[in-house]
Amino acid sequence: MNPTIGTLMNHVSVRAFTEQPLSEEQVKLLVRAAQAASSASFQQAYSIIGVTDPALKTQMAELAGGQPFIAEGGHFFVFCADTYRHKQIAEAKNLDISPTIEGIDALLVGTIDATLAAQNLTVAAESMDLGVCYIGGVRDGIIDIADALHIPNHVVPVFGLAVGYPAERNEIKPRLPFDAVYHENRYNTDTLELVKGYDEETRLYYSKRNGQPSTRTWSDTAIGSLIRLPRSFMKEFLTGRGWAKH
Amino acid sequence: MNPTIGTLMNHVSVRAFTEQPLSEEQVKLLVRAAQAASSASFQQAYSIIGVTDPALKTQMAELAGGQPFIAEGGHFFVFCADTYRHKQIAEAKNLDISPTIEGIDALLVGTIDATLAAQNLTVAAESMDLGVCYIGGVRDGIIDIADALHIPNHVVPVFGLAVGYPAERNEIKPRLPFDAVYHENRYNTDTLELVKGYDEETRLYYSKRNGQPSTRTWSDTAIGSLIRLPRSFMKEFLTGRGWAKH
Description:
The structure is a homodimer. By secondary structure, the first copy, chain A, is α+β, with helices and mostly antiparallel strands. Chain A has 2 domains: 3-172, NADH Oxidase (3-Layer(aba) Sandwich), CATH 3.40.109; 174-246, no CATH class. Chain A has helices at 3-9, 24-35, 54-63, 69-72, 84-92, 98-101, 104-127, 142-148, 178-181, 192-209, 218-228, 234-240; strands spanning 46-51, 75-82, 131-135, 155-164, 182-184. The first copy, chain A, is globular. At the A-B interface, α1, α2, β1, α5 and α6 of A face α1, α2, β1, α5 and α6 of B.
């Protein structure tokens, strides 16, 4: 295993940072690494908003599901799917790209582009011994966050990424068994036996992590969050801003 | 710049592979690296289908926008957003997660999870001197590809990834200027001047790459693909398979 793969395998989400901010050079290097990722049809249909203003950062932490560590250190990046620039350019050329950018596939394109960039930024950060945490909670507060960051139509925040110097690190969390995730030539619908063993493994992980007996398993956690977080406002938000209208 | 960041910066899409396939150990290592990525609420809402059967691989190459190099060497991975397993588990617990997994936010969750995993796989592959190419064209042929891979409802292919030994490599393609992609504290709607300089830079890149004078710029390419590829069947396909219904 080479050092790069070692970095990937060593990943944990960090939710406690020291107060040390990232330097301007670090931010530049991280964003350049993000930009080096692939992009669908090379559209580069994403943008990154760095939140550095302390009051705005605190507001983000509150709006993104109430996660104070976001405001506590390092740097907070908001990744957006973005076809705003493409629309500007097309209009200047008297071309109408609305049928494409207002369709649901364009939302996938922008989300994929933003995520490829974010994961490159993550790998770069971890190779520099920084810690990161993805903040899907940005979509809990998406309506107010979009306003607070002056985000126009055709741009949509898809998640945040908190990056900073780790104050503490959890142990690496076990993943689903290889054969439950990787299928060969045809999709295998019969993986529940594999999940049973994995649930035992994760029960042990959670009980160690919390330092107390726990009955929580991966299945409990995953299904629990699917019941709690329907984000039923999302469709209206997206269509109102020019996304996924058809 | 450390070697991991060097690997990220050195990325180009490879569209010509030697015939050498990946070994089983390589595939295992790559998928494990993919699994090490973050996952929204740790739902691991994705799956990976490796296409190794030669006839099936040729079919994929045809369906994914007619790109023969997909079938020519290495390994072809199809990344899927996947809540199939979650639905099975919830049903066994007599819980109904349909309001969440049938909403558009769940499509984002699964797409993000699949993409985080794919980019880890990409970085791992490139650190092993393999080359990759993302195949968004999987969504051009999504209806037939889903059938060919026996993909059930609540699973949707979001893109493919061809991985193999490079037969040739392009030069690194210049990206949009840093200030056009990275915004601080508020979204900057005024980046078209930056794009003008970038268009000159990409005109030069494309003319060198094709070894002939070219008038093609980034703007031309990006807008051109947005006009050509509306994928207007996507909404019906997704809703028919239990995604993005509301």
